[in-house]
């Protein structure tokens, strides 16, 4: 599958530059970002308490300008499904012809998506795949691979034995479910001598902090931590380990191996400092860029095609739409300075 040539070249350049200055003279496909009114892409941000999502939010207007797309002034649903539904109604009333969202409760959003589909308003979701409800495109990385990669890395570093604390994301989200299921399946099959403590956190750092404090009290021989979202868990985790004098180099026998998901700049710096050992980088810049790209395609009436793309991903057909599966590399000390990582371009 090939992206329209002009847009493909523009977006590839945009994603390579990352934080390039916003342009205001683009005329392709609409007006620059920040507008309101008929024809705009309605944007809802899922939350403001995560470094990852704050990075994504900062990329949305940059990519919109680089692609010549008009977007609404973004709303923020603050991780609440009813607020998201209300925000979508408001965006449509203001004249949005397509919607770019990231529903955190992937089960409850289905009926609203079907309503929007009947009204011929295409929806693009980033990072999360709705369980039900028609969508034009889902832009996300393979979240099962997140759990698999984290399991493989921890299992290798722990020599296949010991105890691991897993901070599970909300299981109402397909991302939380897929990461948890893949991590569990991998540990069960590949590393049966590793005991995993599954700690539900609902993507909240305070719950992860409380769970880690309790677990280290009952099981002081913990040797690994899997953080399903570094953007919300890392500060709390580092704080607990510092308080317990456990934030030590991996050459120290007290070291607790940590693998995360997100790829935010703070995680990359923590890898350099030896505070955590690895992360899986999900591309905040590409989520914004290809989310807006597909919104423009939807408004132009283009039907997506299955297969490899010219931006290193694969488009697959879902029962309720399509998904553009973007690559998400494992980052360790060996490749943490790779300039291709979005976290190294984000300032």
From TrEMBL:
Compartment(s) where it occurs, according to its Swiss-Prot or TrEMBL record: Cell envelope
InterPro entries registered for this protein in UniProt: Peripla_BP_I, SBP_2_dom
GO CC field: cell envelope
GO molecular function: carbohydrate binding
Superkingdom of this protein's organism: Bacteria
Signal sequence annotation: 1-21
Protein keywords: Signal, Sugar transport, Transport
Family annotation (Pfam families): Peripla_BP_4
Family classification: Belongs to the bacterial solute-binding protein 2 family.
Name recorded for this polypeptide: Simple sugar transport system substrate-binding protein/ribose transport system substrate-binding protein
Annotated organism of origin: Herbihabitans rhizosphaerae
């Amino acid at each position: 599958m090939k992206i329209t040539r002009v847009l493909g070249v523009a977006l590839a350049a945009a994603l390579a530059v990352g934080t390039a200055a916003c342009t205001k003279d683009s005329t392709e496909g609409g007006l620059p970002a920040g507008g309101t009114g008929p024809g705009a892409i309605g944007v809802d941000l899922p939350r403001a308490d995560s470094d990852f999502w704050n990075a994504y939010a900062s990329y949305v207007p940059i990519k919109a300008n680089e692609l010549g797309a008009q977007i609404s002034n973004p709303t923020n649903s603050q991780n609440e499904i009813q607020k998201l539904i209300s925000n979508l109604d408001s965006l449509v009333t203001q004249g949005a012809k397509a919607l770019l969202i990231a529903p955190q409760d992937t089960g409850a959003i289905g009926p609203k998506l079907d309503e929007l589909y009947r009204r011929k308003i295409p929806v693009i979701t980033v990072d999360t795949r709705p369980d039900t409800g028609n969508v034009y495109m889902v832009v996300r990385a393979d979240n099962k691979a997140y759990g698999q990669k984290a399991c493989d890395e921890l299992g290798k570093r722990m020599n296949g034995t010991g105890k691991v604390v897993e901070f599970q994301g909300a299981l109402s989200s397909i991302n939380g479910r897929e990461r948890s299921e893949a991590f569990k399946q991998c540990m069960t099959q590949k590393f049966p001598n590793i005991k995993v403590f599954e700690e539900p956190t609902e993507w909240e750092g305070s719950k992860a902090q409380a769970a880690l404090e309790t677990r280290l009290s009952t099981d002081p021989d913990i040797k690994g931590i899997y953080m399903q979202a570094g953007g919300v868990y890392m500060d709390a985790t580092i704080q607990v380990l510092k308080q317990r004098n456990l934030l030590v180099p991996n050459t120290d026998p007290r070291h607790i191996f940590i693998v995360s998901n997100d790829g935010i700049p703070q995680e990359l710096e923590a890898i350099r400092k030896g505070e955590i050992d690895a992360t899986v980088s999900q591309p905040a810049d590409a989520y914004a860029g290809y989310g807006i790209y597909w919104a423009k395609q939807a408004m132009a009436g283009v039907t997506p095609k299955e297969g490899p793309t010219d931006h290193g991903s694969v488009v697959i057909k879902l029962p309720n739409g399509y998904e553009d599966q973007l690559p998400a590399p494992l980052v360790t000390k060996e490749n943490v300075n790779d300039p291709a990582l979005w976290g190294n371009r984000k300032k």
